[in-house]
Amino acid sequence: MIEIDLSGRVAVVTGGSSGIGLATAELFLQAGASVAICGRDGERLARADALLRDNFPDAQLLAARCNVLDDCDVADFAQAVSARFGHADMLINNAGQGRVSTFADTNDDAWREELNLKYFSIIRPTRAFLPMLRNTAEPTITCVNSLLALQPEPHMVATSSARAGVLSLVKSLATELAPQRIRVNSILIGIVESGQWRRRYEAQAQPGESWDDWMIALARKKSIPLGRFGRPEEAAQALFYLATPLSSYTTGSHIDVSGGVARHV
User: Where in the chain is the domain with CATH 3.40.50.720?
Assistant: First the structure.
């Protein structure tokens, strides 16, 4: 197993209070990095903060309430990171859920909301942290995206379109920021276990049907070759690879974390 020591480095994880973001924060703390997480839900953020401090008593950790779509919130978060740690080396942009809708039932407001979320959850944190990233030795920006970017679904038309745009944005950022030594990459996830899927299980499962049985049946219905949903830590491991010097010659690229669902070559 390859181990990496990130002592002295600072990782910033948006949407870090649950799921993939929380699992990513744990990996960075395990590697010795200082970590700053943010989230919109104050109670969920407090639970994540307590969990991480219990698991890593000596961790250098900052948890701040922040809506990444709000310029002032993001500026305040960046200032808090600067005041606490003095710099940032790795930015993980992780935010946003999927919107189930077809073209026929997606109105203008829904389109604006979806495009705003997918684009500006990356644009605003990236803009805010760029000054700090430019002043560190091996800066990276890594984004959580979806396989929908390459493989759109008609029942998720707005999300698929926005995800494709994010893929293009990542490539453009990678090209523009390469002369500044800032690497920019993304992961493309399929279905990953989350609170959203747990809630669907509770609402849809048959009496006596376990989570594992429900999940396996749904994975079969969705033709996932590996026969299950992904786990947050599996997506986090791909993010960790792209954000650290383990991938020092990779930029403008992506890792497929979809369990084999991708149909393209």
Answer: 10-191+232-256
pLDDT of residue 2: 64
Q: Is the pLDDT of residue 114 over 60?
A: yes
Q: Can you give the pLDDT at residue 126?
A: 98
**Beta-sheet strand order (sheet of 34-39):** 61-65, 34-39, 10-13, 90-93, 140-146, 183-189, 254-257
pLDDT of residue 265: 80
Nearest Cα residue to 60 out of 3, 10, 94: 10
Q: Architecture of domain 10-191+232-256 in CATH?
A: 3-Layer(aba) Sandwich (3.40)
Q: Any residues with CB less than 8 A from the CB of 263 and at least 6 apart, and which? A: 151
Q: Is the pTM of this model over 0.70?
A: yes
